[in-house]
Amino acid sequence: MEDSEKKRLEDNDRRYVWHPFTQMKEWEAATPLIIEEGSGTYLTDIYGRRYLDGVSSLWVNIHGHRKKELDEALISQIKKISHSTLLGLSNVPSIKLAGMLAERAPSGLVRVFYSDNGSTGIEIAVKIGFQFWQQHPGGHKGKTKFISLVNAYHGDTIGSVSLGGIDLFHSLFKPLLFNSLKVSSPYCYRCHLDLNYPSCFMACLDGIEQIMKKHSDETAAFVIEPLVQAAAGMIVSPPGFLKKVRDLCTRYNILMIADEVATGFGRTGCMFACEHENVSPDLMVISKGLTGGYLPLAATLTTKDVYDVFLGEYDEFKTFFHGHSYTGNPLGCAVAIANLNLFDSEDVLSGIKEKARFLDERLRAFDGLQHVGNVRNKGLMVGIELVMDRSTKKPYPLSRRIGTKVGIFARKKGLLIRPLGNVVVLMPPLSATINELEAMAKITMDSILDVTERSCLS
Questions:
Q1: Cα(358)–Cα(441) distance, rounded to whole angstroms?
Q2: Taking the alpha carbons of 213, 218, 219, 220 in that order, is the dihedral positive or negative?
Q3: How far apart are CA 115 and CA 125, in angstroms?
């Protein structure tokens, strides 16, 4: 590519593209980083500079970029058909994939409703959960509310934002949202009860039960990210918390919706995070890693009991009136099938255990850094929370942009990461080697030191 073409791309990016979750005034004043190629764990920009992909291209890439088997699956499907609607028709890949997902999902999840992104998958789960009670033969039309966790992030559509609890993202849109019930999250590092795990005996569950008990007759579902609240800063729940939530949902006749958009497909060490505690939700939403990071595709899975409530004669209108033009897209489904086959043929989950053990040990070194308050991880999901003062846990003001500055330093050293406020996040492709994980950890540590100690910003 000629230098003039590179310059034109940079100018046109600033002129025409509106980037998500990006302060565009700053972006327009900077030189954009434009990725042209990818291979394995590396991305390459238009100037030929290579970077380790430390966040799996926003948590989606599983087996590395340009994975031969995934490339071939797409090419093979393109030669047959690229799209055919699922409204009133079906297609071969969508049927095969649905069966594979039902076989691998937590017990009881046997019906698959396709969409194209995690936010929409959650929106679908919310609508199914609402309509389920409206049509339930037991008569529960009053069950219209939803419970979710403080700090929750479930997407950016109006319904999914209504379940969210991150004010920075969601407060502006409050007039557009439906009311949901919020319960405190198990943020052990910053416990709202000022207790310590495990001596607390997960007292935070008491508050959740109180809300459920009080509002059970009007609550349709409890929505939760199993084990890890990802966008909240990789907040890892204590062992047993998820199972207790499942038990409470059952006790108070509330549907459980598991948002496995970020945690699914091996990220936590199991195919789905729910498996760690042998939990079967009533609905489960998956996306991101579903296609190995190749194409937009999502699925909302549910049980026979939920599905059966939608069955009826035509004039009863029990149909789930929801759908999109690209629902069950054959290309997305074909590459998702190849993705799942790779989990089997390459025994991906077994490999994650060794890598997770390595990260567990490697991350201990971060605990000694002056401005690292908390390091938390599950599988290959890592959050490193930076603080001004370790003894008081005083956070950096967001205006200091500490996480962003760490990301800038890391980029100069050949690592692409996207921090969440004061939390530095690592979520590498599952295919990353031990050496690549070591390189990511070293660059991350050096970048934290550069920003918080060496540059006198603290």
A1: 11
A2: positive
A3: 11
| Token pair for 180 | 């949901």
Q: Which among 39, 17, 42 is positioned nearest to 28, based on CA atoms?
A: 17
Q: In the structure encoding, which two tokens stand for residue 402, read together?
A: 């500490």
- Whether 205 and 243 have beta carbons less than 8 Å apart is answered as no
Where does 136-230 have alpha helices with state H?
A: 158-162, 167-170, 204-215
pLDDT tens, N- to C-terminus, the chain (458 residues)? 899 999 999 999 999 999 999 999 999 999 999 999 999 999 999 999 999 999 999 999 999 999 999 999 999 999 999 999 999 999 999 999 999 999 999 999 999 999 999 999 999 999 999 999 999 998 899 999 999 999 999 999 999 999 998 988 888 999 999 999 999 999 999 999 999 999 999 999 999 999 999 999 999 999 999 999 999 999 999 999 999 999 999 999 999 999 999 999 999 999 999 999 999 999 999 999 999 999 999 999 999 999 999 999 999 999 999 999 999 999 999 999 999 999 999 999 999 999 999 999 999 999 999 999 999 999 999 999 999 999 999 999 999 999 999 999 999 999 999 999 999 999 999 999 999 999 999 999 999 999 998 765 44
Residues found in the chain: 458
Identical topology for domains 33-63+347-454 and 71-345: no
In CATH, what is the architecture of 71-345? 3-Layer(aba) Sandwich (3.40)
- The secondary structure of 261-320 as a DSSP string is TTTTTTTTSSSSGGGGGT---SEEEE-GGGGTSSS--EEEEEEHHHHHTT---GGG--S-
Q: State how far the Cα of 408 lies from the Cα of 9, in Å rounded to an integer.
A: 21
Q: Given the DSSP bridges, would you call strands 255-259 and 283-286 parallel, antiparallel or unpaired?
A: parallel
> Considering the domain 33-63+347-454, what is its CATH architecture?
Alpha-Beta Complex (3.90)
Measured CA angle at 340 (ends 337, 345), to 5 deg: 120
Q: DSSP letters of 73-96?
A: HHHHHHTT-S----SS---HHHHH
